[in-house]
Amino acid sequence: MKRNLLAYFIVVILLLPPVSLWAQVSTSSITGVVTDASGAVVASAKVELKNEDTGAAFNGATTSAGVYSFASLTPGRYTVTVTQPGFQTFSSVHNVLTVGTPLVIDISLKVAAVGQSVQVVESTYQRIETSNATVSDVMDTKQVQDLPLNGRNPLTLLTLEPGVVQRTTQAAGSGTHVFGSRDRSHNVTIDGIDANESTVPNPQSNIQRLNPDNVQEFRTVTLDPTAEYGRNSGANVMVATRSGTNDFHGTAFYFNRNTDYNANEWFNNANGQPRPDLKLHQYGFDVGGPIKQEKTFFFGSFQNNSIKQSAPISSIFGTPLVYTSSLRNGMYDQWNQSKFRQPGGLKRQPASRRAELRGQRNHELCGQL
How many domains in the chain? Predict the structure, then answer.
């Protein structure tokens, strides 16, 4: 019995580190130092943090060093309120917290009579990361929903990041290189959970089919990731999915692409070929809202893709030659590799020349044997 309990606790301990790491990369934190007008730290001040979108509130207090900290926060807008007897109530609103990047909000309290308060609206200046040398960028909700996306895949936006190079679709692997790394050296997490394809990790086409409706934002770390990311040297992509709010919201959508909307390509026109068939239907919906006001929320989305497509020859084989009818029937003895007919295909040889070529090839084959 004791051995079974010991084995159980060992397994639990071994499982704890990955869980804590996932929490670090799927959420973020807000910290800061509370001081008075002279710069001295204010201990035991009450600090309230409130999510402006959901109304969820968190309470804490400053330490003896005047420090407060709230960890494991979901991305969103937050209001920080600090109260301490003998000081004005301080409130900082519209503080935007993004996935994977801690937010530092230092607060200075002013001495005042009871009941006086001061409110600070968060400035729109670009915050500078001073805690590490990580190079990263975040695509927020507005960018994910408003920027044009081929196929409604929000992760295609990471190719717009500095240092990212996209190869052609005919190359092997994902075709995405970050500052010279291999195209398979990527790591994608969704709400802190591993979302990598095991053989060929592809940041644009991971095992979870994301769409602009269920993604709140995502951060792409392209250079000098900190220890909690690890695993690969390429892009570290952290996706935060949407959550419900205190109000019920829902949308439905339908997108269509059709052959009739497209022009034919040059090689097809030259050879009298019809336009490649393309019929794409994308439809779905999303809905979210509260289960318990300011406490528990739900969100769900559905998308279905119905695709019928035939690719043009040039996209598979490159610029094609147009073969003669005999070559299409498998008669390769008429092939003269040194002369081509443009754009009519491979040149057909006279019967006497074909017999001469066959005899020459048979002679070369016998000589090799």
Answer: 4
The terminus-to-terminus CA distance of the chain in angstroms comes to: 76
List, for residues 30-52, the tens digit of each pLDDT value.
Answer: 999 999 989 999 999 999 999 99
**Which of 263-277, 311-325, 332-346 ranks highest by mean pLDDT?**
263-277
CB 343 within 8 A of CB 270: yes
Let me know: does 262 contact 286? Beta carbons within 8 Å. no
Residue 271 belongs to a domain: yes
Kindly state the tokens that stand for 74.
Answer: 């979901």
Residues 290 and 194 in one domain: no
Question: Using CA atoms in the order 172, 177, 183, 189, what is the torsion angle rounded to 10 degrees?
Answer: -130
Q: What does the block give as tokens for 297?
A: 């929320």
CB neighbours of residue 107 within 10 Å:
21
Helix, strand, coil percentages in the chain from 3-state DSSP, rounded to 5: 20, 35, 45
Q: Which two tokens stand for residue 41?
A: 């730290």
Cα atoms in the 13 Å half-sphere on the side-chain side of 339: 6
Residue with the two structure tokens 């570290």: 236
pLDDT of residue 34: 94
Contact 262, 275 (CB under 8 A): yes
As a whole number, mean pLDDT of residues 187-205 equals 78
pLDDT for the residue 42:
94
List phi, psi (to 5°) of 133.
-105, 20
Q: Do 298 and 336 fall into the same domain?
A: no
Segment 321-354, tens digit of pLDDT: 556 677 677 776 655 544 444 444 444 444 454 4
Q: Which of 34, 28, 139 has its CA nearest to residue 83?
A: 34
DSSP codes of every residue in 186-243: -EEEETTEE---SSS--TTS-SS---TTTEEEEEEEEES--TTT-S-SS-EEEEEE--
pLDDT band at 287 (very low <50, low <70, confident <90, very high): very high
Task: Mark which of 241, 257, 282 sits at the end of a domain.
Answer: 241
